[in-house]
Amino acid sequence: MKISLFTLLLFALFLGNAQADLNQYKYIIVPKKFDGFRNVNQYQTSTLIKFLFVENGYTAVYEDALPDDLNRDRCLGTVVGLKDDSSMFTTKISLILKDCQSKVVFETKEGTSKEKDYKDAYNEAIRDAFVSFKGLDYKYSPKEEQEAPVKISFKNDVKELNETDAKKPAAAVSVEDNTGKKGEVTEMAPRVVNQEGDATKKALQKGPIVPPTVLYAQVINNGYQLVDASPKVILKMLKSTLEGVFIAESLELNGVVYKRNNKWYFEYNKDGKVVVDELNIKF
């Protein structure tokens, strides 16, 4: 009795986690030709899988007929894969759902069939595998946007600085790093800027318009979209006529992304000045 109760609790926990994982996806993307098959919709696998998902309350679409919002952001959907471990006398099928970063979100139990006809066998095995979705009370619930990082600006902090202040010695300041260890750094006196101006008047400025984190490149029509780990689309890169140069756009900015000295940069115009951000892109 104790073993049965323990098994039941594990199964309930599994269903709860699976439901939470799937609820954040708005669409199920169904390929028209699964890996390992020679023909499109072979044994009517694609039409059957799409039908069963719709029957179970999901919004299923074919990979070549994506809605506009899904076309803009592939992370709204999870892609169906077919795992075929069939033997000579038994058809064995599992369905695997993967997110936009090819990470497994959900995997069904193995559905089986001993039918001799391939079409009948795949039909029975897929329906058997779909039992894994029966206990999930699916309801689309988008992930909450992560709280935006606090941006600290020092613009106009110091309007003027006389020569006496500029010549003051540097002060020692106690700091604590992210490891919890304390130390001292030298607080440098602000630099005096003459009327002619200097580095502050350079047209080329640097400033992180995107978070200083790894961005993952995902293939889209005519280019890539860059997403962070959440995943959230940060930037889109569209191919240009120049090799290694992309037309780039974010929610607020348009510019170009290019590679120089084995590093990627996003260059755009802001407030009449050219700004360059270094990007950490993983292809």
Tell me what you see in this structure:
The protein is built from six helices and 16 strands. It is of the alpha+beta class and 283 residues long. It has two domains: 10-134, Rossmann fold (3-Layer(aba) Sandwich); 203-283, no CATH class. β7 (171-176) and β8 form a beta hairpin. α2 (45-55) runs parallel beside α4 (118-129).
Major beta-sheet overview: 7 strands, mixed, barrel
What's the total count of β strands? 16
Shape: elongated
- Spatially, the strands of the biggest sheet line up as 10-11-12-13-14-15-16
Radius of gyration: 27 Å
Strand content: 25-35%
Average pLDDT value? 76
Element order: H for helix, E for strand: HEHEHEEEEHHHEEEEEEEEEE
Total of helices: 6
Number of domains: 2
The rounded distance between the terminal residues' Cα atoms is 51 Å
CATH class of the largest domain: Alpha Beta
Q: Quote the CATH topology of the largest domain.
A: Rossmann fold
Structural class computed from helices and strand pairing: alpha+beta
Low-confidence stretches: 1-20, 145-155, 157-168, 170-207
Helix coverage percent: 10-25%
The name of the CATH architecture of the largest domain is 3-Layer(aba) Sandwich
Keywords: Signal
Signal peptide: 1-20
